[in-house]
Structure formats: C-alpha cells, structure tokens
Amino acid sequence: MPGETVQIECAAYSIPKVKHILWTHNGREIISNNEDDYTIIKDATSYGMKSTLVIHRSDNKHFGQYNCSVSNDYGYDNMEIFLTGMSKFSKSPNLIRFLGNHKTTSSPSKVFKS
Asked: Does the structural domain 6-96 have CATH classification 1.10.630.10?
C-alpha cells in the first residue's frame, strides 16, 4: 500500500565470506546514505550475510525491478524481485541464495506485490 514501509531481505550462504552486497532498482544502484527513500541494513550471520532493503513511504515510483547481487572470492550471484502495486503482501519476502564452494541453487524470478 502506498505510504507503508516495505522490507525485502536477501540472505546469502557463503564460504568464503560475502565481500559485497549490492542493491539496484530498475538498474540504478541504491546507496542508502544518499537516498531518503531507502535504508540498507547488513547483518553478518553464522552462515554468511543478510541484507535488508527498507523502502520508506512506498509509492508508485518504488514499483519495478529490484536486484540483490552478492559476491565473494569465488564469484557472484543475484536475485531479481519485482515489486508491483496490485495488492499488499503480509510479510517481507526472504531470498536465499548460495555462494562459494557450495552448489548455487537456482530459482525463477519472483513477483511480490505491494
């Protein structure tokens, strides 16, 4: 719903450790220090890293394609999330991908409605 706070989580299981997590919206990098609309929260976990993209005061301009890219010494992986204005979802979507010397799992792009 417009005006609400939306959270999207990206969790990476990674050996070796995650070096970098990058969020983009419609191909444009999101930098939370320079953006009033977004906050990025990064939390180290026992399995790797979790990053939460917080969208403040959601609006039509926030709809579109979001991408969470995760990298470590072995490479990178990413997940696409499409946020639309069709209906409200009840909780934050969780995205989990594997990096490193573990097998990378693959799943189709997901559509989450806001």
From this structure: no
